[in-house]
Amino acid sequence: MDSSFQQPTFDIVQLNELIQQESAVVETLRAEIGKTVIGQDYMISRLLVALFSNGHILLEGVPGLAKTLAIKTLSQAVAAKFSRIQFTPDLLPADLIGTMVYNPKEHNFSVKKGPVFANFVLADEINRAPAKVQSALLEAMQEHQVTIGEESFALPEPFLVLATQNPLEQEGTYPLPEAQLDRFMLKAVISYPSQEDEIRIMRQNVQQSQSKPQAVISPQQLLQIRKAVKSVYMDEKIERYILDIVFASRYPEKYALKKLTDLISYGGSPRASINLALAAKAYAFLQKRAYVIPEDVRAISKDVLRHRIGVTYEAEAENITSDKIIAEILNGVIVP
């Protein structure tokens, strides 16, 4: 890796000042979330990346790892409308987006909007509902609108779907369709906290000393931060690096990674390239940097790509996951 990565040659002072100014509120937001959610720095970081780059996020982990708590706390720290949907096998699409209700007095139909009409939508245990319910979110996630009857309704801005799911090995779960998985910018796999963090969690809950999060950022400030994130500089070399990573997932033999050919059933779509660029900018912003470096791309690659690369039966037989494939790609692709 070239550690002497050059900063952009244009005048970056003004941009750097903007990033420093906008990122100041991020520390306040982190601190507010940290009062409630302990020992999940990785999860909080990925939630903020999704929040600031206007992307949906899927959190996967066993029950009890504070996935729901983290999302709820984030929504409370941002003064925005929050809605929680508990996905169950008997859930219907109308339970999400709403339906037409007949008014017998006026002899007409009116629209009753569903819980998806919120700034933050928590889709809890999303893989416990059948595919027809999961697919009801597709239009909302991609186009930020839903269609009820013959009319389309715009969703409020900002709009973010934050979903949780239990690992597919557990009973009573349904794998998400590839089309829906691709709508999530990030898929973060959450692990257990350390022993030191868990004793703090235990004490906090036993003593009932958990404080309610306060709103420290407004939706208008959030939209302003998103503009600042988009302005983070990305050199053409970084753009090419991102494309090389994604193309290596499609054509590994062209990148001296022929051993991966029989392990990958499909590679990342163009949406993978777009989301990797946006997420890298947001990650750089969280580091209070006004430009993206290769380490930003590498740090966020697994979260962006793990649900966009299909593994073959041969890979599953050898216990090779998409994470391992991504690691091979990152080691094989030349870093600028």
Q: What is the residue-mean pLDDT, rounded to a whole number? A: 86
Widest beta sheet: strand line-up? 2-5-8-1-9
Roughly how many Å is the radius of gyration? 21 Å
By CATH, the superfamily of the largest domain comes out as: P-loop containing nucleotide triphosphate hydrolases
The termini sit apart by: 7 Å
Secondary structure elements and their pairing?
Blueprint lengths: L12 H22 L6 H12 L3 E5 L6 H11 L4 E5 L7 H4 E6 L4 E6 L6 E5 L6 H4 L1 H8 L1 E4 L2 E4 L5 E6 L12 H4 L2 E6 L5 H12 L12 H12 L5 H15 L13 E3 L3 H17 L7 H12 L4 E2 L1 H5 L4 H11 L4
Helix pairs in contact: 1-9, 2-11, 10-11, 11-12, 12-14
Question: What this model shows, in words?
Answer:
- It is a single chain.
- Helix content is 44%, strand content 15%.
- It has 14 helices and eleven strands.
- A five-stranded parallel sheet has the order 2-5-8-1-9. The chain has a two-stranded antiparallel sheet with strand order 3-4.
- The model has no long low-confidence stretch (mean pLDDT 86).
- It folds into two domains: 224 residues, P-loop containing nucleotide triphosphate hydrolases (Rossmann fold), CATH 3.40.50.300; 105 residues, Helicase, Ruva Protein, domain 3.
- Helix 1 crosses helix 9, helix 11 crosses helix 12 and helix 12 packs antiparallel against helix 14.
- The radius of gyration is 21 Å and the shape is globular.
- The protein starts with 12 loop residues before the first helix and ends with a helix.
- By secondary structure, the chain is α/β, with parallel strands linked by helices.
